[in-house]
Amino acid sequence: MTYQAPVADIQFTLTHVIGASALAETERFAEATEDMSEAILTEAAKLTESVLAPLQRPGDLHPARLENGVVRCSPGYAQGYQAIAEGGWVGINADPDFGGMGLPMTLTTAVGEMMNSACLSLALNPLMTQGQIEALEAHASDEIKALYLPKLITGEWTGTMNLTEPQAGSDVGALTTKAVPNSDGTYAISGQKIYISWGDHDLAENICHLVLARLPGAPMGTKGISLFIVPKYLPDGDGKPGVTNRLNPVSLEHKMGLGGSPTAVMAFNNATGWMIGAENTGMAAMFTMMNNARLGVGTQGVGVAEAAYQHALAYAMDRKQGRSPIKGGTGTIMDHADVRRMLMTMKALTRSARAICYDCAYSLDMAKATGDAAWTARAAFLTPIAKAFGTDVGSEVSDLGIQVHGGMGFIEETGAAQFARDVRVTRIYEGTNGIQAMDMVGRKLADGGTAAEALLDEIEATAVTARDAHPLLADALQDAGECLAETTRWMVEQELNDRFAGAANYLRAFALTLGGHYLMKASLAAPGDTARLALAQFHLRQLVPQVTALALSAQEGAEPLYALSVRDFAQ
Amino acid sequence: MTYQAPVADIQFTLTHVIGASALAETERFAEATEDMSEAILTEAAKLTESVLAPLQRPGDLHPARLENGVVRCSPGYAQGYQAIAEGGWVGINADPDFGGMGLPMTLTTAVGEMMNSACLSLALNPLMTQGQIEALEAHASDEIKALYLPKLITGEWTGTMNLTEPQAGSDVGALTTKAVPNSDGTYAISGQKIYISWGDHDLAENICHLVLARLPGAPMGTKGISLFIVPKYLPDGDGKPGVTNRLNPVSLEHKMGLGGSPTAVMAFNNATGWMIGAENTGMAAMFTMMNNARLGVGTQGVGVAEAAYQHALAYAMDRKQGRSPIKGGTGTIMDHADVRRMLMTMKALTRSARAICYDCAYSLDMAKATGDAAWTARAAFLTPIAKAFGTDVGSEVSDLGIQVHGGMGFIEETGAAQFARDVRVTRIYEGTNGIQAMDMVGRKLADGGTAAEALLDEIEATAVTARDAHPLLADALQDAGECLAETTRWMVEQELNDRFAGAANYLRAFALTLGGHYLMKASLAAPGDTARLALAQFHLRQLVPQVTALALSAQEGAEPLYALSVRDFAQ
Description:
Chain A has 571 residues and is of the alpha+beta class. The first copy, chain A, has helices at 7-18, 34-52, 56-61, 77-86, 105-118, 120-139, 142-154, 282-318, 337-370, 373-404, 416-423, 433-441, 450-466, 471-492, 496-525, 530-543, 546-554, 566-569; strands at 65-67, 70-72, 157-162, 178-181, 187-197, 206-213, 226-231, 233-235, 241-244, 247-252, 263-276.
């Protein structure tokens, strides 16, 4: 089974569920018409199906390796990367002034999903570069922009993010990498960074590291962090890779999956860097970049979920087994109720997460296009949901995919296990899903719940629209929405740690309800489509009932979690 | 972090939650006193902590491999296996007449859990042999018993189960392996079997295969299957391994995990075998063996869950990170509500699954000791729950263990990922968890719900006992029980496929409620123990609320699952 890009459902979701056609009515994204979208998606389908999908297995069988200080990538990755770069896909949403296509994040996300489905490990490379482009566009000087952006946008150079240090994981403020000013305006960067995705490789002529570091005498914590660009090769007078910088990959991690993506420990030894933005404002710049990267990571989950679903479905449709429990069955395991339950769960979760990610991207675009703070708040609220739920779905769907395969699922040659192993890290990096949930009930409810309530109003509107034709489903959606509204009010009145205690359950409940809302919208937009109705019904009657339980558990507060002493845990 | 056998909680669970002391009052298990139990558990702790646990990583790093037709095991496995055999652990519950210890399955299960925690892949070897011992004790002729049982019980020889063929997975009746009578009363066995755990290895002097095959002219399907014992080396006149039999491992599977356990494709080419039991009764014999093996596999899940929990807890207690969100915290990630939520979920699920498995084993013992059909029915009803929930918990807890580790969780050196990879197959083999759920709502409700209702009565009794001291928790337990009672009544009135459609949700709901019942019993048995109360509270208020949603979804029937055509799935 090879991946087939679900162009029809993606386009349907964009147009009828998200309403992304409205983008073409803005000045900023006037070019993003439905026709343009279809053309882009069709091109992306060709790239992902024929060039990238065949690289998925080789990345696992022959992971990137460090040889004599140089990272050698998996077989075929060089050609795959070249196709991505030459197709202009790295700069799909970058500034046209520097060679980008200037397309909306909505479309970037849809294309990203396809690349993630086809080959997650390689697709992570341009995702890192895109994050860097965004950071430079927003915070770099004109000189830096002119030098770096064209190279990054064409994919001639790639980008990385260097945040984490051994003693500073989720707590970025604890980092100790130093940046000492040189006499020429540059900085000497020294320190060690870990978990650097695509920190070194042989796919492009230069690698640009965005590094968080501290200036001498900078304040403690996150307020004393500045951002630097530190290229592997220092650009010469013509902007070409020149002298080798004083940095190197120390080792690559031996991971559970995603072997095609080299994860490096990077050492900086008085490496030359240039500051991005003002002194001690590195965290703000990083957050710009990180928020969009969080959506990108959520979309990684969606991509893997889609691919794992297709993979399991192809197996189920082919696998003959036993007497059929139904009349007129196919003789395959598709006849079995429990196999159908698994596949419908996979499909419903994947489509829910897809719509959440696209809607988040759409909100970012509308915020850019209109400058309306309500769109910014909507995007900000949806971001942790997109990241955490998207990646949870990636794991859950690929795990169900293994189960659909039965014994074959545990055998690596089948490929089902790789999806689960590869996607596992997405729930961890770019802020663990626990951190996402804390962000959601902390920062994202700091507005007193306004952004949350605006989304809940949309959900209620869908329920109202659905009521005549589908009263039971409308009730299920409305009940879940009301349950969330009540939980939201509870949340905003609590101390932070009481919110945190219920954060994961609240996020899950919100995401499941949003999924019901989007799948219902999809069904309403296609009145004769029995399959879309059946999927909405499945989601609302098999998955959304959990919302009540999750909302209840979310309101228990922190105290019960601290009733066990550390010693009690170990008993 | 090395594994520490939780002897205290195991003993507490056996005595106060399951009430296993009653076994010593029966004639059959008069020796199984609390003192004996403690002595056995203490010995098993020594073996598992110091001998077996160090083999866990080597099994993953250096999986068993097939070299020139011979399987070479992972480093240290030979010594580990020898320690298991010499300790008498293979024959712990086997018939004393043949050298077994004759101890109850309850204690066997507790010891099995420890071995699974320490090194799942190696522990699978004696588990297979134990299944074979049981099958031979129940169905073999005196001659076969006298020849094979003493060797299997000492661990000099090991056993395997050969059911699956490429075209016959869950549908065992489709198998085609042939058994042609020889003139001397033996049979010539020919065919290929797949997924044979420990099908070949270099740990013991002989390997005895129990093989399902068809006699010439046997009926189609499961009614035409007979069981044979087919040793690697034919026993000579002295009962020692003699002539090499015509069978061999063709290949070993390359798996997602459990690399220390060789999973072989076995070829039988007119191999000599002896029939076990009567012609065409192989499935019945296999079911005896499989039912106990299912409990054994559920216990694999519990073992891995316990080990993964300990591993994650040790990391969390050690990992310093960020500002503490609480006053008087430890400065480690244990201070964070969401980390505590994960760890408490892990602990509650592990203890729930442990109690379910032990209670299932206890029911088997009581059935043997008393001959009372109610105990047999209780064991039969608990078996699919023990297998499916135990292994689901193994996966869920080890997955949470990865998450607790953050970025380190994705790095193989940490060891967290191995638990999740190793345990993944337990949800598939010995009947997938979907098959378990179908068994539960099919065969195990064929009594009209009597066995289910008897368990629900026990749950209600716990709620009644708890009411005075803990009214809210008692309500939560009672509500869940009533919800299950109603769902059970719904189930027994439905067509089989409508039951199947809700089977997985029903099983999950039943298991979560049983978990609440056992954790509440544990708390009631230790009145001053705030930790046990806190854990019961967590389970009943964070996990048991899902029961209502699951029960609701379980009663939707099959129709919605068939509303999508096969083609619709692929859209």
